[in-house]
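Support request, please re-run this one:
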Amino acid sequence: MAFLASIAVNTRHFLSNKHLKSATALDLIDFIGIGINLLNPKIILFNVTFLSQFITHGRTKIAYFRPFYIPISLPITISMVFMTHKFAQHLKQNPFYIRFLDWFMASILRVLFYVS
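Re-run finished. Output below.
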């Protein structure tokens, strides 16, 4: 564990601009991030497991909900993706936040390692 912590302290974070080679790589990363967020399996699992508990057999009211679900949820999801992108850009500009997040996650992993 100490070895991993020393590597984290002595290396730069993966979000730093030196690791990204070109603008095409940035575009590809943005496209992949948007695809991952929009095809999030947690959302699919929520719809299959939790939402289906409130639908009783024989109800036709849910048929009215179907056409509105995607137009209502898609703008919200896309706006969350773009806000997350802006937040990540802000974090990349200030290396203090990156170091803080690295140390914070390392401490959480250390606590979980010692507890288990």
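The first helix runs from residue 2 to 10. The chain has five helices and no strands.
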